[in-house]
Structures are given as C-alpha cells and as structure tokens.
Amino acid sequence: MTVTSSANNNKEVNGHSQRPLVLSCIDGSRYTSAVCDYAAWIAVKISAPLKLLHNIERGNVPAVADLTGSIGLGSQEELLEELTALEQQRSRLMVEQGKLMLQAARERAEQAGVEQVATCQRHDSLSESLIELEDSIRVLVLGIRGEDSEQGLGTQLETVVRSLHKPILVVNRDFQPPQRIMLAYDGSEAARKALALVAGSPLFRQLSCHLVFVGPAEAAEGLLAEASAVLDDAGLAVTASRLEGKTVEALTAYQAQHDIDLTVMGAFSHNRLRDLLLGSITAKMLLSTQQPLLLLR
Predict the structure, then answer these.
(1) Can you list the domains of the chain with their CATH numbers?
(2) Residue 7, CA distances (Å) to 102, 106, 116, 292 in order
(3) Its domain of life (predicted)?
(4) Its pTM surpasses 0.90
(5) Is residue 57 a contact partner of residue 151, using CB atoms and an 8 Å limit?
C-alpha cells in the first residue's frame, strides 16, 4: 500500500513512472546518503527519473491484537487502551520519520542535478514492494546493510537479488564518482548481460574498464577476446586480464591493486543446491569487497 507519493516534474500513472527509472531504497541506515548519491549519479548519467522508496516493514509495527496476550485475563481495559494508543503513536512516528528521510534524500538528489525526483512510502516487505515495482525499474540501488542488522536490507539482499531481473547496485561505501570499473566475465548468461550493459549504457562512457576472467588460460583466451571486441566496438578503453586462484580472492585483490571503484558481475547461479554446497560467489563477493557491486541476473 502506497502511503505517500510525490514528484517533481515527473508524471506518474498508478504510482509508476511512465519512463524506466532509477529506484533508490532509503532506510536511514549507515549507507543511506551514499545510496542516494549513487542513485543520483546514475540518474544524471543515463538521463532517467529517480524514485526514492522508503519501506515500513509489517514486522516493524506490531499488531495491536498482539498486545492482548501480554495483559492476561482480568486486566484493566485502560491498560489495553494505553498500549494501543502507544503503538498507534509509534506507527505514526515511523511514517513521519520516513517522510523526513525521503524529503532530505530528494533535496540531496536535486542538488546533485537530478531533474525528475519522486518519493514513495509503502507498508510492505521490501521484496514485495520491489517485485510490484519491477516493470518500472531501470536500475535498483540499495545498501548492503539495513538500519536493523537483523531485519534491514542486509538480510533481505539475497532475496531481492534473486527475485528481480534488473541491474542492482549494492552500495557498501561512501559515494565516490567511479573512474575505473571492473567487469568480471566468465561467459555465463548473466555475465553476457553485464557485458551488454557496460557496452551499451552511457553510464560507463569515459570510464576505464578492466575486463577480468578467473580461470585456466585455455578458457580465458577466447572469452576475453570475445568480450574485449564488444567493449572495443563500444568505444571503451579496455584492459583485459586473466587471474589465477580462488575467484573471490582473485577479484578482490585485483580491485585493490588497480584501485577499482565499481565492479560489474553476474549474480547467483540458477542452481540453488550448488550454491548451498559450494557457497555463492556473489554472496562471498558481497561480504568481501570494499567497493560497490553492480549485479545482473
């Protein structure tokens, strides 16, 4: 349920922008300002509208009916009424707090040069809200940790990444305009989507692109040549490298060595059993990297 929605020079139909938009998840956590800044950077670069979303999870607002179980038989009705009033007040305060965060984020985005900014507040789980909004999303931006380490964006991140088929930028540091990107390429369907995005998006123009493959030389030669040709045709400055060792360790070491600002890679396999047995490279990268990750499925 949408609680409030507003826009600046941006027409919307049923709460959805008529143009594919950059969607930024605002939750008041450590990375909220950085999430807003990265989303604004993307929106300006690709000339897209920006929507700022604040979700109030159902679990964060206890149902009034739940209070009766802690009162006991024969308790005074005044106590129940008082507890009910407190929960209603808490719910109103959470809504108002969210509105203030959205207003501050909108002003920040407008100062960064975004011309079309909308705000939206919903009472729903984050994944449910994003699935409902998916058709309108061009790029999703969210923080790697939520306001509540147990219930915030951090614990929902894998669900969100697995549920959406849109590019997702996961922010884990303060904003820094990217100058060098790394494209982790292995020839998979998700990696090919990442390659097509880097080659075709104005977001990566004027940036230095490091194309890397982790694995044996016999596999690397053809894959790197194939991907390099696509990037060269797009006019990008490309440095292609084959890395050895364990995938996550090799990628994070390369990031540090070459001062990479942003990594682009495919997200998760379709084989959940394999992920459970071997561990997901995506999940390990999210835990290990010190730079934002742009994920594609």
Answers:
(1) 2-60+92-171 (3.40.50.620), 180-296 (3.40.50.620)
(2) 12, 10, 7, 28
(3) Bacteria
(4) no
(5) yes
